[in-house]
Design brief:
9 helices; globular; alpha/beta; four-stranded mixed sheet; 247 residues; 13 strands; single chain; seven-stranded mixed sheet
């Protein structure tokens, strides 16, 4: 899974593989990382930084939208290099390694060949080697975080209890994490594309995740940049309307 670097907006860089996205916010020569990829992405991540004229020393903060390991893979490495790491307090015990998810739901899906391939590709990228994050600052619902890019925290529980989106208001960009995605790999051999909540074994409370779409719609963002799938350019309200349709 090669890591690709694109620029969906000025000062915003998308790091994407086949399945997962994470992002950089650039302001005043400093960087914020939104989510943290997988451990196996580190070398390509550093190469991408170099191509932008940066090194890991230029990263002030890493904001983790939720505690799943495909979004936290390099968070501790970034933190130990000098960045502050942030998460919602409801997800912090998982990120610190104090609590652990059961894998029973995942096991029930592994008989599906496409899902097994998806999980094996993550194992190859080091997902099982994701280290705990030793120290975390809190993301508080509604706060504008004092980091490069100044994103506002939108608590949108359901996928996890502490799931958050991040809104860059002056550019009308909503980084939706897994609260709203445009690809769900658990929904068939090529995944299911288009705006949706994540189904299958990875969402703690699908009904709550559906309810949380209302807080995302209320941002009225022009562009949605999800944790999985392609950017959505037709507005978050339209995306939420589509995600709410029966499937």
């Amino acid at each position: 899974m090669t890591l690709r670097l694109t620029q969906p907006a000025p000062g915003v860089h998308r790091l994407s593989s086949v399945y997962t996205n994470w992002y950089l916010l650039e302001a005043g020569g400093r960087l914020t990382v939104l989510d943290a990829g997988l451990p196996g992405d580190w070398r390509e991540f550093c190469s991408a930084l170099s191509g932008l004229g940066h090194t890991p020393d230029d990263i002030d903060a890493v904001l983790i939208t939720h505690h799943h390991r495909d979004h936290a893979g390099n968070a501790e490495r970034l933190r130990s290099s000098g960045a502050r790491a942030f998460s919602h307090p409801a997800d912090a015990p998982y990120l610190r390694g104090e609590e652990h998810l059961s894998d029973r739901g995942v096991v029930r899906y592994l008989w599906r060949p496409w899902y097994a391939f998806y999980m094996l590709s993550y194992v190859a990228k080091g997902i099982t080697r994701t280290p705990p994050v030793a120290q975390l600052d809190e993301l508080e619902d509604g706060e504008v975080v004092d980091v490069p890019g100044s994103p506002r925290v939108i608590h949108a529980p359901g996928h996890t209890a502490g799931s958050c989106a991040l809104l860059v208001e002056d550019q009308s960009l909503l980084f939706s994490g897994d609260a709203l995605v445009t690809l769900d790999v658990a929904r068939g051999p090529r995944g299911r594309s288009g705006p949706q909540i994540v189904r299958g074994p990875h969402t703690a409370d699908p009904d709550l995740a559906m309810d949380s779409l209302s807080v995302l719609a209320a941002t009225n963002a022009d562009t949605v940049l999800p944790g999985h799938g392609e950017p959505w350019l037709d507005g978050v309200r339209n995306a939420v309307d589509l995600a709410r349709r029966p499937t």
